[in-house]
């Protein structure tokens, strides 16, 4: 039974339980009762998160000649956020229920006059709430030393546009990409990791000429859709394109790639035509020359096309798309079949790509040598605890595509049994051919 056939509230509960049980995602500070809107990635979660980052980076930076990388600070000069408009305009409307004390973000209320928790109409007046997280830099905590944790990772890209261009000798059009933390003091964090107060963004700002900017925007829209279809196996029934009807005053076009989560459709990535707004604003507020000068001496403020995706949301979307339950044979007493939970993750991002499982602890020395040989090329795990059936089920739940079983026959024939996660089919492969086998099935 696929995730699409499981009732939505039930699926979300199953995913949260699986993430905790198998070390994918934990509630931050859980021993103190947790901290709403903050999440920790466990041993398998951090492996998968890094794999997603690397897949995006390879696709957006490493395999391209026209995109450079950047890793900037979380805290910028306070004037950055003045120029970007975040200090004045980065806010949501909120209200409180006077009866049950629940705080609401107004745009998420089906009826803005009724509390969604207790159905009371006894609400406070709506008021603006700025989402920037404030801190202080230096030994004095006063207005002159206020700074902000960045609300988006793209602003430092604009600040470094000229330096990156000069250092890499890039000419328009070209892009700058960054993966990094962002912080938003959300009124009502919810839906697991979908809406958090601390999260990771993967953003690329592509600088181009105004005359070709719509063509560039169309290109990146199609590229990003293709990424989800080809790299993450998202199907058309779980993904849709939402075109913005209302645009920012400086924008020409904007679309969101939305994904069907258990709680409904949610934005995963935005592809935005931002015009010259960002570069022009930072040039105005900083006094620095951020114009591009071509080989003919013509000066221009670059137009920006942005692709912006939340890594945590992508992680959650992949989990939702990969979760399956099915009847499978079992060795449990009194049962012929049992429910098998399996994450059918794309092999490129699975936390463990190959698990090495000796059939007996007596075979540990040989099995560990095999593990060491494979671990240099793939994300591997060595597991000798429990019956082979239980170990298979553990690997199914963390999405391991292949299990390699080293048995007593392996000592004689130098072959191992490879078990496929999705089909549970098993094949016997000579150890000398293992790397070639996995190169075909994990990389090809």
Tally of individual domains: 3
Question: How does the overall form come out from the CA principal axes?
Answer: globular
What is the CATH architecture descriptor of the largest domain?
A: 2-Layer Sandwich
| The CATH H-level homologous superfamily of the largest domain | Bira Bifunctional Protein, Domain 2
Radius of gyration: 25 Å
Compute the average pLDDT: 92
Enumerate how many helices there are, as a single number: 13
CATH class of the largest domain: Alpha Beta
Largest sheet strand order: 3-9-10-16-13-12-11
What does this structure look like?
This protein has helices at residues 8-21, 43-62, 78-84, 86-89, 155-159, 161-168, 213-231, 277-286, 311-322, 364-375, 388-398, 410-413, 434-443, and strands at 25-27, 39-41, 67-70, 91-96, 103-105, 127-130, 133-136, 146-149, 174-183, 198-208, 239-243, 253-261, 264-275, 292-293, 299-300, 303-310, 323-329, 337-343, 354-358, 380-382, 402-406, 415-420, 426-430. With 444 residues, it is an alpha+beta fold. The chain has 3 domains: 3-78 and 136-319, BirA Bifunctional Protein, domain 2, CATH 3.30.930.10; 91-130, no CATH class; 352-443, Anticodon-binding domain (Rossmann fold), CATH 3.40.50. The strands form 7 sheets. The chain has a 7-stranded mixed sheet with strand order 3-9-10-16-13-12-11, sandwiched between helices. Helix 2 (43-62) crosses helix 9 and helix 3 crosses helix 8 (277-286). The longest helix is centred in the N-terminal third of the chain and has 20 residues, at 43-62.
